[in-house]
Amino acid sequence: MSRAAVITRVVKPVLYLAATLPLAWLLFALLTGRVMGDQVKFMQHVTGDTVLTCLMLTLAITPLRRLTGWNEIIRIRRLIGLTAFWYACLHLTTYLVFDQSLSLMEIAKDIAKHPWVLVGFAGFLCLVPLAITSTTGWVRRLGGKRWQRLHRLVYVAATAGVLHYFWLVKKDVYWPLMYGLILLLLLSSRVWLARERRTRRAPLPGDEEAKPAA
Amino acid sequence: MLIKRPPDIPVSQITDEAQYWNRREFLKSAGFGVAAVCLIPPGTARLGGDDERLTPYEDVTGYNNYYEFGTDKDDPARHAGRLRIRPWKVEVAGEVKRPAMYDLDQLLKPFTPVERVYRLRCVEAWSMVVPWLGIPLAQIIDRLEPTTKAKYVEFTTLYDPEQMPGQRRDILQWPYVEGLRMDEARHPLTLMVTGLYGKPLPNQNGAPLRLIVPWKYGFKGGKSIVRIRFTEQQPRTTWNIAAPNEYGFYANVNPEVDHPRWSQARERRVGELFKRKTLMFNGYADQVASLYSGMDLRKNF
Fold first, then answer.
1. Host H or E run for residue B132
2. Full-model pTM
3. How far is residue B133's CA from residue B192's CA, in Å, rounded to a whole number?
4. In whole angstroms, what is the distance from residue A75 CA to residue A80 CA?
5. From the candidates B67, B75, B204, B263, which should be mutated to test the interface with A, based on the most A CB atoms within 10 A?
6. Cβ separation of A98 and B4 shorter than 8 Å?
């Protein structure tokens, strides 16, 4: 099997399954009475963690590709990105329904008043156009360059997500800090890679312009 | 995380299963609501509606903020088992007739614990209803005979990183210190807690001795207390030191004064999905509002 075939026939099915695991775990834990205390907070932690993890994974694809030259892994990026989006939808829904009882007034007040809510909401809004334009059709319609530029919004979304987490914890910032460090590493690796490319000039095996890479 | 794992507590602390199921059956048959109302001593706290059921024992003992054992809600249940709660010494110090080191059992001997069902409102906007077992603090204070200079009482939690692994990280300034104004401490609702659900206090809930001040946010209730000090000056309290703009000395439950980062207008009762309105002074306004008459509660949050 070629590498591409391994990706489509093995890696992708496994990832599809993996993408459902946090939700499966969430439902299992809730329905079997394993969740102590605030059950909505539990839903928000599981979904929120999944979003951040997936965003970090999508951001790791490009540096990994550049470092290893294994270009085929680009094929799993959309799947991971969309997983982040769907869990972000779930995350937001628990907030809108359970925390705010769908009261538009309350939601508006909360967003205006509390920076961490605003930042989280902004991060979600960044993900919406990315999810919509994730199809091959949209890549073609926008053209590689423009598509790529638009999808740099993921940097903003991930930063907003980490900030959102950082801002909401009461005192122990260990996990938000961990996500923050990983994000910093992933973003700075892009600066480094760009500089590397400029100095070497020789095209690397991932530089075909038509392929979306951010 | 928030998932139940087998709690690491000594066998002596685990409820006999038959007794446990008995209790569940009793509560079920009596109806949680009725049981809750029956347990309220006359003349003290009255719970608002008939939707104020007791929070299940598993949640009360499995979802705790007790940073000395870790910052996750299930850390206390997992790590508090290693805390040795006997023998236990309590130092009584400061503006008091006879400063002394007491053995806890000696200190508590003259008193009979009473059961009180109180709402517990965490500053993080979740809440529980807990049947505590304890001694009104006023009774203990009377016995200790503070001097006329005593304007405040300070409560200090045990500091022992060996037994309290959370203290190995500088999350907060250890040991944990909380305090009350003398009139708050003497208020009949203020309880020195030694048990819950009719049983000895589990370690993760602050054994062997903790404070409960039901009209204040939960963090005011110091746990595993080793020192009671009477002072003339307002004590410097842990969360206030950690973030003075977020946690005041008074920390009265107040739906109108938000935490700088989140709203305090509503809360989630553990076991419910939707939030409910937070009540002024956690629903104890009739009993305690007069303590703060003339005070600007926005400033003295």
1. strand B126-136
2. 0.83
3. 8
4. 10
5. B263
6. no
Q: Which long-range contacts (CB under 8 A, 24 or more apart) does B53-58 make?
A: B53/B129, B53/B271, B54/B27, B54/B117, B54/B129, B54/B130, B54/B131, B55/B128, B55/B129, B55/B130, B55/B269, B55/B270, B55/B271, B56/B271, B57/B20, B57/B23, B57/B197, B58/A36, B58/B4
Per-residue pLDDT for chain B (301 aa), expressed as one digit of tens each?
445 444 444 444 444 444 544 544 444 444 443 344 434 443 333 344 457 899 999 999 999 999 999 999 999 999 999 999 999 999 999 999 999 999 999 999 999 999 999 999 999 999 999 999 999 999 999 999 999 999 999 999 999 999 999 999 999 999 999 999 999 999 999 999 999 999 999 999 999 999 999 999 999 999 999 999 999 999 999 999 999 999 999 999 999 999 999 999 999 999 999 999 999 999 999 999 999 999 999 999 9
A29 touches chain B (CB under 8 A): yes
Kindly state the tokens that stand for B120: 């517990």
Amino acid present at A183: L
Helix, strand, coil tally for chain B in percent (to 5): 30, 25, 50
Q: Quote the CA–CA distance of A196 and B182 in Å, as a whole number.
A: 68
Lookup result for tokens 């869990």: A87
